[in-house]
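[job 4471] stage=fold_predict status=RUNNING
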Amino acid sequence: MSDADRTALLADFSATGRNHPYLAFTLNSLCNLDCVFCKPRCMPDYGHKDHPLSAGDYAAIAREAAAWKVAKAHCSGGEPTLRSDILEVIAALAAGLGTEASIGMTTHGNLRRGLTVDQMAGAGLTYVNVSLHSLDRSRSAKIMGGGDPDRARDTVNAALGLQLKVKINCVVQRSYLHDALQVANLAKDLPVAVRLIELQNIGPASAIFTEEYISETEVRPHLLQWLASAGEVSRTELGVRSPGNYLRPDGWVGSIGFISNSSCATCSDANRIKITPSGVARPCILHNRDIALKPHLAGGTLDEAFAHLFRAMLDRNGNPAWQGFHYVDYDLRWDRMERPHGAPVMLPVLSTGSCSRASSGETS
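[job 4471] inference complete, writing structure tokens
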């Protein structure tokens, strides 16, 4: 693709007013914990069977993405820190996207022996999202199938000490609402954004959804004392693009955010290019515009692949479900879902709670 063609396509994308895309990598399928809404150990094909992308592959993808003005990469899993080459992957993404890029990761924070936040920051990590659903060890273990919330908090503190941006992800369940409120209270004294995330009726979470789902609308009254005098925190101040509505109670150092992908999610501002462990890029969950990147890596034609991805994100403006209410998350971790060819995937509608604001589809 010529520079002129790339410039023209970027201009077309910019004219839509959407946030510029970023890369959302699912690095692996493996996790040493077993959260009740994720349950990786119960999956029939647990343990990724295809050859995952290498650090060199990530470097090449990042270099091409930089030519398309992409300036952010987010890594998740599984548990991405279980990859033996995680430092090399972080360094590859940082080098490929350039010195001004944001390189982030979602982790449960119970880092394996020999791996430290300092090492990851040295490799180029600029922010971290730590999953923390209860501060009580026994209750946390019930939710997450193991692990230690104190170790996760150590990871948070280490990241803050290194001046990394930190968000804490807390999936709210009805039986553990008090635990979520205690997690949210961490933002009183720490410069973190605690994100209260609605349970989604997808994958293993479907088994507990009816009993455990609680909407943002139902949660907010429990935070009334905190939020009554709270001011809104801009995404710019948070340092990364983040969905939902972030509020800082009076006198607090950090903020509380709501990620309401069940009660009021839309894709009107979704801007993730999701890439599976084996290198399948998915620019939109509502259109089947998936593209395997490995042949383009081998053939030196990543520019063609990225042109396809940007056109796909433009094309989805015509999808009848765009700006509609639907599930905006999609399980990529095991590359196990067959995508029907030719027709858009129309996801089911969930009408629970109320939505008084627009919410973007990104969840990094």
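[job 4471] summary: The CA atoms of residues 34 and 40 lie 6 Å apart.
[job 4471] exit 0
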